[in-house]
Fold each of these.
Amino acid sequence: MKKLNLRDIKKAKQSNLQMLTCYDFQTAQIFNNTDLDMILVGDSLGNVVLGYETTVEVTLSDMETFGKAVRRGAPDKFLVMDLPFGTYSTVNQGVHSATKLFQTTKCEAIKLEGAFPYQLKLIERLTQTGIPVMGHIGLTPQSVHQLGGYFTHGKSEDDASRLMREAKALQAAGCFSVVLEMVEASVAAKITDELSIPTIGIGAGKKTDGQVLVINDLLKMGPLTPPKFCTPIADLYQLKTELINRYLQDQRK
């Protein structure tokens, strides 16, 4: 499959774009041989790979290490890198962090959470510099403590209006796409209709322009129950446990 570029993705309204997270070289090699549209090296690696309680502990160095591994494994895929917590608290800091991550991982785009004025200014600066940016609103895991937990956004009229304003502001600032995480499905559908750039949903219904899921949830690679919006297509945790136990039993015979 031909590697997508920024123009391809911008044109991909209503085309069911598919993006999955990836954190390691071997999984990236698998993805590179599929028709997957985009790979996200998410700061969710803090939860599913490093065992952190939240994504807040993930560092820029962590993202560089995992991003470079995925890039080596999937050179033919459009790669998006999360900018981790605390690395874009100011515009200047954000420009420095994003530039470093963009250069070291050889990714095609950076993703950052939120749509506050300084973040919009940062997005403008980055896109002017030549770094494509994917926005992210709704549930923004880096702000989980400030938000007061994990919950669906857009249930009230005021909250729905806020999300619409944020989505339009991100588009105006130069984002080529916006992730809508845990946004009320009807609100996500309206935002998708209003924007000229693709929306990527996660727990936001089926009427976005694409979907993204954490591969560890999709394949149930850990013992915990995946989020309600993800129906696993396998249970690799149970399978690997059974296979390892079988091996150990065979060795002890």
Amino acid sequence: MYLLINFAEGYVVEIWEQIFRVVLATMLGAVIGFEREIKNKPAGFITFMLVSMGACLFALVQVNLIATNIKVATETTQYALDASRIIAQIVPGIGFLGAGTIIHNRGAVKGITTAALLWVSAAIGLLIGMGGINNYIIALITTLVVFPFTLLTRRLGRKYADYHRIYRVDVVILSNNEQDLYNKISDSGANIKKVFFHNKSFKNDRSVKELYIYFSIKKGYTYNAVLESILSADYIISLEDS
């Protein structure tokens, strides 16, 4: 059973192959969605399945319309083809879904990764929907090799970033205890990178300084432990972390 003659090369697209494309796109979308689901993200298993499947269906509509236009054009000698019009409309559609995931998080940047993965899921669906062995291979490798590799590099990247991250605290202290504060920060597991003097004033007849302190955390220590150590000093008037 044949559906349509695709393009002008005599390649016949069987309806069963098109069904296979839809199923494959849905399965690959589910692989990406599963990772989002177990992390309790706003777009999860079902959402990614539907995005990938929908993109594949739109690609099939494009393929079939082109095939129909070629058949009509061959019979009437009137050509009216646009190979990208339908697919181009998927771009703003997925952008709308991505924006929805960010709005769900009240504008927090947490939704950015999910929004980006929605784009990837749609692209995989398009690849499979357009057909061709090269597209199948690219979609499979992207989902089963590249995607897991990006998750691994993300974890490694976070560990590297946490080790080299620079923190900042704004503290108001009694003026005579500035060096004591620096020693306490170092002893609590931090490396002071730089200090900016912001202001000096008098509160309750006491001379106080406002400082911006930038520091990194040594291996084996935590940011919260450093903050607790600073706050334990009786010469701390106030502290804000940025």
Amino acid sequence: MKNIVFVCSGNTCRSPMAEGLFRKYIEDNKIEGMSVSSCGTSAMTGDPASINSVLALQKRGIDISNHRARVINPEILLNGDLFVCMSETHAKVLARYCDESQLAVLGVNDPFMQSLEVYERCCDLIEEQIPGIAKKAGELPVVRKMGEKDIEAVASLEKECFSVPWSENSLREELSNPTARFYTLKNGGELYGYIGANNICGEVYITNVAVSEKHRRRGFGRRLLKSLILQSRFENAAFVTLEVRRSNSAAVSLYEGCGFKQMGERKDFYTSPKEDALIYTFYPRER
């Protein structure tokens, strides 16, 4: 199930209307595998949808009278897959936590305290963009916690990417390890990549980041890293760290682009072939 979240400021006008319109669209078009919700960056939890939002959607046969506002929180951020923002301002708030591939902007001005006609124009602007959002959501791979059903595919990816790959048994052991933070990136049944780490007393050690060769250079490694960083931030981790081959310039560029800093090196850390490792570390509390 892909979780689509519409975001505005108070979660009483634009995002509830967008949520209602999107729900009707996926129902009418029999699109499965998507859930929809909404929230606000500065919402007062429990506020009802504005009366003009309710009336504007009633004209389209949609009832949002039971909607209650909620402010964005760690649970929403961790479980959301695509965040559809009403303005660039909302997207900038979420960009601190989410990968850019998870964000979309509709460009809809706030109709708060304006006439029903203004709300209806907002509805029109949102509605004409709903098919594009549904298409983007359908194409978007999602990050999920690694499960037993993923082990075979992850082990195969390990063999594709590393000279000394993890075995299925080693991966399976992490399923019951309380320190393990292993996540896959998939669309449908296809594995695009995965990331593995262990959070030991608030110190997060990344063991592997792997993306299938046919899906590289599309930002998926960054997406996996951003998801792990988000999880680590909300677990109040002191740092996230990893080793990378000195010659792996693509990986080094990825880590530096995500805010990791080189903190040292390990001589002859890697085998097959032998090579030094560079130590890169990210400090979630600094950002």
